[in-house]
Structure formats: structure tokens, C-alpha cells
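FOLDING PROBLEM:
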Amino acid sequence: MVEQKTEKVVKTILSVSELGAGESTRLVDCKLLDLENVKYLTLTARCKYVSGASSPIAIHVRTSPNGGEWDTTDYTTFENDLVAGGVGQRTVAITPDARYLKVIVENQDTGNAVTNIKIVATLTKEL
């Protein structure tokens, strides 16, 4: 029996210092994530909320077959944990069956900005 060798890679694909109330990032703000030979993928969202925060950020995952033409609807969406006055962080498993991936972060709170936003991808690649 041949043992399958893997390598874990951790990459920050989006980092935003502040996202205003009701605003969203754009696809161009996110680094391209190549999913070739990726067996497992998790995305970790982290951000700082003000004490009056009432809604979490939403992470919209978009895919592309060629890295240039992107789906106009989400592959999947998840919300970060809301920790008013603190840091919220959530990690979600994503099926890596697309070729390329990017994210858009939406601040669903229409009254407060969110700061220190970071989206980190952890990929387990087959060697």
C-alpha cells in the first residue's frame, strides 16, 4: 500500500483594516486561491466588532474555473461569530471541488464599522 503524502499550507487571502457599516469588499481585494491538488480546505474569518455591533460579517465564497471569470452567485456563504465589543472568529470547512476561489466580506451591520478583518485559508494538499 502506498502512503498518500500531504502538506498543510496556511495563507491569508484577505486582510482589511476597516469595513464601513453595510459595506462589502470586492473580489479584486482577495488573493486568488488555487485549489489544484487540494484535498481539504478550511476558511477562518476573524474580525473585531464594536461594543454596539448588532450583526456579524458574512463571508461570500465565489469560484472560477479559470481564475478570471467568476461566478455571479455564491458557492457558499457563512457568517462569522458576533462578539460585540470583542473579536469574533469562526472556521468553516469548504469542499475544494472548484479550481479557483476568492471571498467577498459583507458587513451586515448597517450602523457600525468592523475592523481588523482577516480571512485565512488552510489547505491540505496532496503531494
Summary: Residues 22-117 form a domain with the Immunoglobulin-like fold (CATH 2.60.40). The mean pLDDT is 97.
